[in-house]
Amino acid sequence: MQVSLNTSSLSSADALGSSVIKQQPANQIVPTNIKTAMSNTDYPASPLISARPQRYSVQLNDQLTCLQEADHYLGQLEQQLLDYRHQSRKGGEAAQKQLQSLQTLLEKRPQLSAGTVDNQLRPVLQGEARVTFTAPQLSHALQSQQGESLLFSASKDREQRLAAVHIDEDMDPRQLKATMNNALRRVGIQSHGAQGETYFSTREDNWAQLQGSLAAIGDGKRFSAGKTTAIATTALPAQANTLLQALQSPGARLSATLQQTLDQIGQSREQLATQQEKARQLIDGMARYSQSQSAEHASQALSKMLTRASHNYQTLSEAVNGQASLSSLTVRSLLS
To answer: Exposed/middle/buried for 60, CB within 10 Å: 0-12, 13-18, 19+?
Structure first.
């Protein structure tokens, strides 16, 4: 049975709150017909140990790692903010050192958080941290119903990516949007709609390349024909950048920004703690041993069951076959 945490990209508190943990069923395993006292124990489920296989999936491991990385970074940032606020009231060299340490923590966020905290200082437990931006020319291109052939180009992963698309005049709005989105995805862009506005996003590590290279060629309707038109992009205000700017000009604005950031981090860490507790409960439920010495107790119960079933050929046959598939190393590991 493969087990994982079902989480969404946590670029917002709502997304984080909606994350739940669930089990994903794998191929069903046919149970044995043995009905003994062993059914009340946690391990083994039957003499055939493979009758109830449980393993930690790679996906679960990755998601647990993301939880820990995000919480560790946000915990460091929270502590640094509190220390700086305290030291800044006293002033002096200690406050200046604390400021430099805080700025370094913010500037190196992608590396120190391993990409699990985005530029809004929110956890990203699935997918990759992204930058959200506006691009009026792209928004207009998505809304226009005119027929046209377009060629988009942008740098992605240090390569020049191209995406061609043809728009028919008789396309309905939904089909037009899907066609344009498919082309934009090939150059590393996703579109998002919110409250009547159109926004776009790209991977944070690709943002610097994209904003200086995004361009298009058209037939003179959406974009100029015969020449490349640069597409202007503007990133939405990011909490990390806002905080950095406020730190460079201390004052009333800095105090408000610090408090706002601390409140946001507190909410995110509380929700991360909830996810970690759910993960802990899930892993506890996967454990084969509910208490110490339970392996020894299980072996004793198995021995008693085999003694009682000494005249039952089917039970003994299944037990022997199950035990024969175990290596001596596995047995020593279980009983050690």
So the answer is: buried
Residues of the chain with pLDDT under 70: 1-57, 285-295, 322-324, 326, 330-336
- How far apart, in whole angstroms, are the C-alpha atoms of residue 66 and residue 114? 8
DSSP-assigned letters across all residues of 315-331: HHHHHHHHHHTS-HHHH
| Whole-number Å distance between alpha carbons of 123 and 115 | 9
Tracing tokens 């506890």 back to the chain, one arrives at: 284
Strands (E), the chain: 2-6, 20-24, 55-56, 130-134, 148-156, 159-167, 190-194, 197-203, 215-217, 229-230, 234-235
| pTM score over 0.90 | no
Q: How do residues 78-123 score in pLDDT, each as one tens digit?
A: 999 999 998 888 878 888 899 999 999 999 999 999 999 999 999 9
Helices (H), 118-251: 136-143, 173-185, 207-211, 239-248
Identify the structural domains of the chain with CATH numbers, from first to last.
1-128+238-336 (no CATH), 136-232 (2.60.40)
